[in-house]
Amino acid sequence: MVSCNLSSLLLGVFVLATIHSSLSITLSPNYYDQTCPNVEAAVTSAVKKAMLNDRTVPAALLRMQFHDCFIRGCDGSVLLNSTKNNQAEKDGPPNISLHAFYVIDNAKKALEAMCPGTVSCADIIALAARDAVHLSGGPSWVVPKGRKDGRISKATETRQLPAPTFNISQLQQSFSQRGLDINDLVALSGGHTLGFAHCSSFQNRIHNFATTQDVDPSLQQAFAASLRSVCPMHNKVNSAGANLDSTPTIFDNSYYKLLLEGESIFSSDQALLTNPTTQKLVTKYAYSREEFEKAFVESMIKMSSITGGQEKTDVTRFSSTPTRAECLSSRNLETKTS
Prior knowledge:
mainly alpha, Peroxidase, domain 1, Peroxidase, domain 2, 2 domains, two-stranded antiparallel sheet, 4 strands, 3% strand, globular, disordered C terminus
């Protein structure tokens, strides 16, 4: 398993984050040392408490950061609620199933009591995602901090998120547009070691796959049959679906092992075996959890350093009792939605 010391060495490469931003924002692991020294402990406490009641929280928090960072950078805009004049990101089709926003709310409430108007919601998401991985048995790392929160959140922009039906070219293009390379693509796909997928996200592989094939032939036959049993052609059970790997609450390299065995869930997972470079990396991570965790830490630091927000945290913008999913609930998005 990757140690914190190794993670610290990786940090230096990515402390300057200027991708997708009109500002040059320097992120630092020591950003809150003087202004809010207990920031990490507060976030970790909120994540631990939530995990005691809901084992799906780690997967939700990790996915939340992906979906935040891939739209306008890591600016916390995924937390914003829709208004009568603007539909926000969280109501875009790919984000309807996002949850555990209350964990961010609880961390923010605790931090406002300790150091009002200091810690950005974007930084809380980044810290919570790290804790989600580590508390699930995965590696820990030093999170660079200093992200600014954004005021803009549009549901239409969630179309930019990489879809579970993407092929390798589409995946590479999506990641490249965010300053992430093919190595990051394979390493970050390993986040699928945590979580659950609803039938709609992989229906294309198990029903009417092609004119002459009902099921994707790359799927292992027995595995495909099991998926079809829980997700029939005209599925009407909203909660139906499948775990993303055999250990959905444990952060490990099972995802890559199952991918090589024909037991991947998404088309985008299978796509990693259609390119020589990505296939080689999948094999490498399937045989070495240490190599996977090392690459994952590096790519998470890189992705979480994509900046976008420009507004400093202001205590007057927060209510004393934040509403569900609203770290930034008191902001009037109707005045600035473009």
